[in-house]
UniProtKB/TrEMBL annotation:
Keywords: Transferase. The keyword Cytoplasm does not apply. Signal peptide: none annotated. GO terms for cellular component: acetyl-CoA carboxylase complex. This is Acetyl-CoA carboxyl transferase. It comes from Actinomadura bangladeshensis. Residues 301-324 are annotated as: Disordered. The keyword Transferase applies. GO terms for molecular function: acetyl-CoA carboxylase activity; transferase activity. It holds the Pfam family Carboxyl_trans. Residues 1-236 form the CoA carboxyltransferase N-terminal domain. GO terms for biological process: fatty acid biosynthetic process; malonyl-CoA biosynthetic process.
């Protein structure tokens, strides 16, 4: 069973020295007596005043902003006050030029607030979209469980998206699906490892590896091209006929994109699929650094292509994700 931790423990183990500065303000109290009792009980149970914590800290020396869910607070559900807190944090991160780390764990929107809570997903999505449009990184770590509107909105917008091992991730939870259709959800479908294989998320990452994985991605995403052109080696191949060139390009032992990354790149973060449920083993997508130059690498994987995985339409859509 994978380890499940709360919001404060995650921050303690991911941020430098376990230290962070809160951006949160106390939520306003304007609810019915029964709902107010639910909120009071949630605060007592979780030790938090809302379903998310926001703020800033250092990640391997880099200043970052964060939004982290606390599932023990009403199943991490999103109400108006929660959405206000998330939107304020995203907008502040954008204004201050900070990369943003999101670690959702939620059953979706808060039933006690009805439609008013559901429409908050659009506000949060718009804030994240503006953050990305400003050229700022948005990294997501999906935790167990992440379902409903949270997964469909700010849980699905990461430049890089990982999930904790064995996490339940999907729009409809298994019990909701069974209630609607009268049969159990197929086993293993909504598990992090399956979503990674299908190209919905990029990787499965445990909490103790999260800081390293996020820092490696940010080293590339926050990097800037070198101020001077990169010099390339001048040892061109000797004169040869056109056919000899074709034969050389077709040699089975010719180095490919995997060798390029292994021997020529640093800070490599492999990405998986389109992020929308398609993957193609004939194309490799990665963040990487070549010398001083950070880049997004889109490369045909000739080894996989020779192994029976020709590049198809899904591969072109994976490439399009990389180009965006």
């Amino acid at each position: 069973m994978a380890e499940r931790v709360g919001a404060r423990e995650l921050l303690r183990r991911v941020l430098d020295g376990g230290a962070w500065t809160s951006w949160d303000r106390p939520p306003a109290e304007e609810h019915s007596s029964s709902y107010a009792r639910d909120l009071a009980a949630a605060r007592e149970r979780s030790g938090c005043d809302e379903a998310v914590l926001t703020g800033e800290g250092l990640l391997r020396g880099r200043r970052v902003a964060f939004v982290v869910s606390e599932f023990r607070f009403l199943a991490g559900s999103i109400g108006l006050a929660t959405a206000d807190r998330i939107v304020a944090a995203v907008e502040r991160a954008t204004a201050e030029g900070l990369p943003l780390l999101a670690a959702p764990s939620s059953g979706g929107t808060r039933m006690q607030e009805g439609t008013a809570a559901f429409v908050q997903m659009a506000r949060i999505t718009a804030a994240v979209a503006a953050h990305r449009a400003a050229g700022l990184p948005y990294l997501v770590h999906l935790r167990h469980p992440t379902t409903g509107g949270v997964f469909a909105s700010w849980g699905s917008l990461g430049h890089v998206t990982a999930a904790e091992p064995g996490a339940l991730i999907g729009f409809l939870g298994p019990r909701v699906y069974e209630g609607l259709y009268g049969e159990p959800f197929p086993p293993g479908v909504q598990v992090a490892e399956n979503l990674a294989a299908k190209g919905l998320i990029d990787a499965v990452v445990g909490i103790d590896d999260l800081a390293e994985a996020a820092s490696r991605a940010l080293d590339v995403l926050c990097g800037r091209p070198p101020s001077t052109p990169v010099d390339l080696p001048a040892d061109l191949p000797p004169d040869e006929t056109a056919w000899e060139s074709i034969e050389r390009s077709r040699r089975a032992d010719r180095p490919g994109v995997r060798e390029l990354l292994r021997h020529g790149a640093a800070d490599v973060t492999l990405l998986s699929g389109t992020g929308q449920g398609e993957a193609d083993r004939g194309l490799m997508l990665a963040l990487a650094r070549f010398g001083a130059a950070p880049c997004v690498l889109v490369g045909q994987d000739r080894r996989s292509q020779r192994g029976g995985h020709p590049l198809g339409p899904a591969g072109l859509r994976v490439a399009r994700r990389g180009m965006r």
